[in-house]
Structures are given as C-alpha cells and as structure tokens.
Write a structure and sequence with these properties.
Blueprint (H helix, E strand, L loop, with lengths): L1 H19 L13 E4 L1 H6 L3 E4 L1 E17 L4 E4 L5 E6 L6 E2 L4 E6 L1 H32 L5 H29 L9 E5 L4 E6 L6 E2 L12 E4 L3 E9 L11 E6 L2 E13 L9 E9 L10 E17 L4 E3 L2 E10 L5 E7 L1 E2 L7 E6 L6 E5 L1 H5 L3
Antiparallel strand pairs: 1-19, 2-22, 3-12, 3-16, 4-11, 5-7, 5-10, 6-9, 7-8, 9-11, 12-15, 13-14, 13-16, 14-15, 16-21, 17-18, 18-19, 20-21
Helix pairs in contact: 3-4
C-alpha cells in the first residue's frame, strides 16, 4: 500500500512538473487536505467534476434465469391415434396456419371410428322401428306398458351412442366426419413456425388415446415475444414487486442488456429450492432471445430518491472514505480541491452510491480522476 501511494505521488508530481516546466514555482502552497490545480492540470489529469444531485438509487437482486416460450404462443402437437406416418407436409422453419396439415398417419383407429358410426346408425334404426312397433301394439292393447318403456329406453340409448360415435369421429377428423378413410391428417392448432419436428416417414406413432406414452411430433410457436423466468430466494421475495425493473444478460450477447419489468410472481414456493418463480416479458422481433438460453437476471428493488455519487467519486484509504470537493479559487487563480470525509450506504447495488453525510446538493465533486488528487495531499 505504501508503494502504491508513493507511485501516486510520483505521478501527481509529474503532472504538476510537466505543467510548470520552465516556470517559477507557485506563489503559495495549499494547506493540508487541499490540492490546487490549474485548468490545464485538470484537463491533463482527466479529472471530471460534477454537482451532487438526487438520483434514482436502488438495491439489486442478481439471480439466474432462462428464456422460455410465451405459453399462449406455442403448441405441442401429439397424435391422437396410433398408426404409421405416411406423409410429412411441414418442414423445420416453415410457417403454417391453424388447420394446415403437418403429417398424415395411416391408422386402423380411423376405420374403427367409421365402423362405429355405421353400426350406431343401424342400431338406431332398429331401435326406432322397435319402439314404434311396440307403441302401436300398446295402442291396440297387444303389448304391455313395460315393453313400450323398455323399447323407448333402447331407442334413446341408440340415439346417444350414435351422437357419441359421430363426435369421436369428428374429433379425429377435425371436421364433420362425412368422408372417412384410414388416413388421419395431423393439423396445426395455431398459426406459427415449425420449431421442432420429431417424426419421419414410415415410423409408428403412439396415439394419446391408445393407453401408451405418446411422443411430441411437432412444436409450433412464435418467438417474437418471449418470457424470461427466474427464481428468487425466499429471503428476497418480499422485496420483489410487480413492475420492478429488470435487466437481463445472455451469454451469447455479453455486451447487450435487455430491459423489462416483472409482470408475474408465482403464488407458491418451490419446496425443494425454496424459491419463488418470477417472469418478465420481452419483445423479440429480431429473435435474438431463444428459448432455453440461460440468463443472468438483475432485479431492481427498494427504489428511492437520494443524494448520490457514482462509484468512481468515492475514494477509500484504510478505514476512511472521502470525496474531493471543489471549494473555490486560490490567490493565484488555481482551482482548490478539498478532501471531505463522507458516510455512504455501502449496501446498495445501484450504479449510484447514496451519500448519507458529508456533502450537500449542488456541491461540485470530483467524479473521475480523484485517485490522483489523493496522492497530492
């Protein structure tokens, strides 16, 4: 530390000597705790002076996060039927509309569904005829009331079965089921881009209704708007509010900061990690943010107005913290700087350091190059 201070004194002394080479020494010397510099010395030493002002200061919570799809803008497509893929119409990156065919699957379940409709129609006709016949016999006192009621029940059951089988066929076909074949057309449920495709011609796929484990065949989505999800530890949850400013950095773009605000805070705590999930949304027209990218999320909390200085204005030497304040002009016209002890809030994580004591609003303080002045006093 002694060597570092000595080096600063040498540098400062060199600046002064360089500016006064070939001239007489100053007519007076500064008192202890002050440094007097000419305007040229200030310029050559890159000393920056600025007034003390109230700033927006805050603390920050830094946590990890991940880019994710907006849930309302992504669809995971599974096959409802078991069968063999005979055709694929959608390629990776292709834009599709809702209802566009992604693939065609040859499925026996389609034939069964068609047969169920035909059988239900035949059963309904038979039940209807039986009901009308029993009713006519009852009117002629040739059949009992029980027979008529039982026949009527069978008729209503046949109607319900036909409605059920038609609805199943409609769901499978995505239409009214008027034209039926064993080819099932797998269609896109939303407008978007084909993000992923996990199917090839000729492979067998398991249907969602078949009792096995269905595999996602396509992912359709948009990434022009995405989410970043982050986890906040239980001890910090009370400090995070809806609307808290957020800055996100991505490994792929180390020199870029993405700004947003907290727009959702989970109502539950993860029991294993003891964290609460929070979300912020981003417009992503340039598609730089891609789902599953890892992110560093900085959340601004405890925002307030306070007298504050940039970090470079604060000089620390041992246990002492001080700044350099411009206090006037010396008798020979040089700018006078005085060392002032200050009390600062070391706990804040903002780019501004709140000053609790030592300076007042409007004072002109050295905010750059102050380390050189410390070596001249």
């Amino acid at each position: 530390m002694v060597g570092f201070r000595a080096a600063l004194v040498v540098v400062s002394f060199g600046i002064v000597c360089a500016c006064h080479h070939g001239t007489e020494a100053a007519s007076s010397d500064p008192p202890p705790g002050q440094a007097w510099l000419t305007e040229e010395q200030i310029k050559n030493a890159n000393i920056v002076i600025a007034p003390v002002e109230e700033q927006d200061v805050d603390d920050t919570i830094v946590t990890s996060g991940k880019v994710a799809f907006d849930d309302a803008r992504v669809a995971h497509v599974y096959s409802p039927v078991t069968g063999r893929v005979t055709r694929i119409d959608a390629s990776l990156g292709q834009r599709v509309k809702k209802g566009d065919i992604l693939a065609v699957i040859d499925s026996p379940e389609m034939g069964n569904a068609s047969a169920d409709v035909g059988k239900a129609q035949a059963d309904l006709i038979a039940a209807e005829n039986d009901y009308h016949r029993k009713k006519a016999l009852f009117d002629q006192h040739a059949a009992s009331q029980v027979d008529v009621e039982q026949s009527e029940d069978n008729y209503h059951k046949a109607q319900a079965e036909l409605a059920r089988s038609k609805e199943k066929l409609r769901l499978l076909k995505g239409g009214d089921g008027a034209t039926v074949s064993q080819g099932f057309a797998l269609t896109s449920p939303i407008d978007g881009e084909v993000i992923s495709r996990n199917v090839s011609p000729g492979i067998e796929v398991q249907g969602q209704y078949g009792g096995g484990t269905a595999v996602e065949l396509f992912m359709i989505g948009e990434i022009d708007k995405v989410w970043v999800l982050a986890d906040v530890y239980e001890m910090d949850v009370a400090r995070v509010k809806l609307g808290s400013p957020v800055q996100v950095k991505i490994v792929a773009y180390p020199n870029r900061v993405f700004d947003s605000k907290i727009d959702w805070i989970s109502g539950t705590l993860d029991p294993s990690t003891r964290t609460v999930r929070v979300r912020c949304s981003f417009d992503n027209a340039d598609k730089l943010l891609k789902p599953e990218m890892y992110a560093t999320v900085t959340i601004s909390v405890d925002q307030k107005k306070a007298l504050a200085l940039p970090h470079d204005a604060i000089v620390r030497m041992g246990d002492h913290t001080f700044v350099f304040v411009e206090v006037g002009k010396s008798p020979d016209g040089r700018v006078e700087f005085e060392r002032r002890p200050v009390t600062v809030d070391e706990g804040e994580g903002s780019k501004w350091v709140p000053v609790d004591h030592g300076v007042e609003k409007g004072m002109r303080v050295v905010v750059g190059g102050g380390i050189l002045l410390s070596g001249m006093m």
